[in-house]
């Protein structure tokens, strides 16, 4: 049954309180050199909702994911998952507690089969207890149970026919599916997906979207980082916007996408362009046209959406540049193109 009650307890805005938060982060900071990659004052993630974490390149989204899931250490900060303090808890324990994540660049192990990758997921995150997972004698009676669970998930993700294939032979999109399926082996409560659509062929896009919606239907909470604004608008119940390490806006997608702070945050990536005159707008259009990851100004992005669908002069967007009328997607490049930083 859909829970249509308000997500917040009152006002909407950066750091606002949620009716039923599953994750609460306070004063989380991470510096690299002198730069504040993450400087989150307060953030609550609502339970059993799909929350999108958006923001321009370098906003700190992946770093925040890394911190919250124990893959990186903050300079300061506290966070609670399901009322348990988990700051400083290593990643494999965080996963066992029910909070799992996937990566921008999938971390499936190419030289292991699809099934072997799934077995690894049962113990923890990639790399955990490799020997235990692979050697039967050490594995004991859990093996049958784990294999059955993996079979069910592989069937659900339509990877069952490939279970004995090496993961390296899968397409970019199939690897994303495998990583998501593997994350579910620990029966998580909170699933964090870092750019689930990046590197996914359009043919698999709908399937991935459906899987994400199903996670919520099955009672899980989803927090995902995404640049594809079509996807954000399509499946997110709540949107959190980061820029320069901070949360600059949050709220329902249809409201956040029109928020001035959000528009500024995205245009901030092109701050060298003077928007004060029409020449500046033309220059911005050229910059955006060359920026493959930019969704600003596209009719699909929603960020610069104007009532009645009109665009400001000069901002014709990607669809008019390419003649494409369907949803904007960053997903039509097969190989993953960006390395996740440690
Ligand atoms: N290991 C690292 N060493 C130094 N700087 C880093 C490291 N990881 C991230 N950064 C920097 O921290 C900032 C935030 O990076 P992060 O990858 O978290 O941003 P992001 O919002 O996920 O960006 P994108 O959308 O491009 O993935 C960037 O300026 C980045 O260069």
Automatic annotation (TrEMBL):
The keyword Nucleotide-binding applies. Residues 23-269 form the ABC transporter domain. Keywords: ATP-binding, Nucleotide-binding, Transport. Pfam families: ABC_tran, BCA_ABC_TP_C. InterPro entries: AAA+_ATPase (IPR003593), ABC_AA/LPS_Transport (IPR051120), ABC_transporter-like_ATP-bd (IPR003439), ABC_transporter-like_CS (IPR017871), BCA_ABC_TP_C (IPR032823), P-loop_NTPase (IPR027417). Residues 322-334 have a biased composition (Low complexity). GO terms for molecular function: ATP binding. PROSITE patterns: ABC_TRANSPORTER_1, ABC_TRANSPORTER_2. Residues 295-342 are annotated as: Disordered. Coiled coil: none annotated. It comes from the Bacteria. SUPFAM superfamilies: P-loop containing nucleoside triphosphate hydrolases. The keyword ATP-binding applies. This is ABC transporter ATP-binding protein. It comes from Arthrobacter flavus. The lineage of its organism: Bacteria, Bacillati, Actinomycetota, Actinomycetes, Micrococcales.
């Amino acid at each position: 049954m859909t829970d249509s009650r308000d997500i917040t307890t009152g006002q909407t805005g950066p750091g606002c309180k949620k009716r039923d938060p599953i994750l609460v982060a306070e004063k989380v900071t991470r510096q690299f050199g002198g730069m504040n990659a993450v400087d989150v004052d307060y953030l609550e993630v609502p339970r059993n909702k799909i929350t999108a974490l958006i923001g321009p390149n370098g906003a700190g989204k992946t770093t925040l994911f890394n911190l919250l899931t124990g893959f990186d250490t903050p300079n300061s900060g506290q966070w609670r998952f399901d009322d348990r303090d988990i700051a400083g808890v290593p990643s494999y324990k965080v996963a066992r507690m029910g909070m799992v994540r996937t990566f921008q660049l999938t971390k499936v192990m190419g030289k292991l089969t699809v099934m072997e990758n799934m077995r690894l997921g049962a113990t923890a995150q990639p790399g955990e207890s490799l020997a235990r997972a692979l050697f039967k004698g050490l594995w004991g009676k859990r093996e049958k149970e784990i294999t059955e669970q993996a079979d069910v998930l592989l069937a659900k993700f339509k990877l069952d026919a490939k279970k004995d294939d090496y993961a390296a032979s899968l397409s970019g999109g199939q690897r994303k599916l495998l990583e998501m399926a593997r994350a579910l082996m620990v029966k998580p409560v909170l699933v964090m997906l870092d750019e689930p659509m990046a590197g996914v062929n359009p043919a698999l896009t709908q399937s991935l979207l459906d899987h994400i919606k199903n996670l919520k239907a099955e009672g899980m909470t989803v927090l995902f980082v995404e640049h594809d604004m079509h996807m954000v608008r399509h499946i997110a119940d709540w949107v959190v916007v980061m820029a320069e390490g901070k949360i600059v806006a949050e709220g329902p997608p249809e409201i956040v996408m029109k928020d001035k702070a959000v528009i500024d945050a995205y245009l901030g990536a092109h701050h060298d362009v003077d928007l004060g005159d029409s020449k500046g707008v033309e220059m911005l259009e050229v910059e955006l046209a060359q920026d493959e990851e930019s969704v600003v100004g596209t009719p699909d992005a929603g960020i610069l959406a104007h009532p009645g669908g009109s665009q400001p002069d000069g901002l014709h967007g990607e669809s008019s540049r390419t003649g494409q009328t369907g949803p904007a997607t960053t997903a039509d490049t097969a190989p993953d193109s960006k390395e996740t930083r440690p």
